[in-house]
Write a structure and sequence with these properties.
alpha/beta; 6 strands; 9 helices; six-stranded parallel beta sheet
Length: 241
């Protein structure tokens, strides 16, 4: 099971929105996906309730599972591993303990940043958490003789190519070690409208929003080896020789 964490020092960057729509798109591609809603606001748990309420309207739609994250994140993930291919952890801002736990368990950290001054200012603190986790995991790997590094990358959300703050975000990210994903997500009304309907933009009438998420999902699965899980799933469906 590939574990993806969405860390961040503040709310409002769109972490939950990106997490949700990536999970929904992966589910459409036959990945078994679970979201751990570690945010006290419970936005994704509320979405899941809406999804279950509207499920009969979309009989062919495939849904990720959403559960509340328990205190022991490591044990929770271990118990879920046999049943799921991908786990996504939606983290709250400013909760250092749960962010550190998640970064010690995750295979990949996706850092969502939006073109706002406050998001730019808090970027350094989020990177501190990621770098600390990388160092601790390296020490753990050396001690145990394992090889389980933390991968990380930035996702630009609500991005407007010609907007000054969007340009500033790109310039700032160019100064840090972590890669910036080529796929950016634009500021679209669709992302605000779909949660109440219990769907993701993959099933929405805004084809541009759906295309952005599909392209972003493809880049993430290929870059972080998640597509290898899919290939294994596909092979398992083949009849025995």
């Amino acid at each position: 099971m590939h574990v993806i964490a969405f860390p961040g020092q503040k709310g409002g960057t769109g972490k939950s929105t990106i997490c949700l729509n990536l999970a929904v798109e992966l589910a459409q591609q036959d990945y078994r996906v679970v979201i751990l809603d570690a945010d006290p606001q419970g936005s994704l748990s509320s979405w899941y309730q809406a999804a279950q309420a509207h499920e009969e309207e979309h009989p062919d739609y495939k849904y990720p599972t959403v559960i509340g994250a328990l205190d022991n994140l490591k044990k929770t993930l271990e118990s879920l591993a046999p049943a799921f291919d991908v786990a996504m952890i939606d983290l709250p801002g400013r909760d250092a303990k749960i962010q550190r736990q998640a970064l010690m368990c995750a295979d990949t950290a996706l850092l969502v940043i939006a073109p706002g001054s406050f998001d730019i200012w808090t970027l350094e603190h989020t990177l501190d958490y990621v770098n600390q986790a990388k160092e601790l995991r390296q020490e753990r790997d050396e001690l145990l003789g394992t090889d389980n590094p933390l991968q990380a990358a930035f996702i630009r959300n609500r991005f407007v190519a010609q907007q000054n703050l969007s340009k500033r975000v790109s310039e700032l990210l160019g100064e840090v070690e972590e890669p910036i994903l080529e796929s950016a997500v634009s500021a679209r009304v669709a992302f605000a409208e779909v949660p109440a309907e219990g769907i993701g933009v993959s099933l929405y009438h805004d084809k541009n929003a759906a295309r952005e998420i599909k392209v972003l999902t493809q880049e993430i699965t290929e870059k972080f080896g998640i597509s290898n899980i899919y290939n294994t799933i596909e092979k398992s469906k083949l009849p025995a020789a």
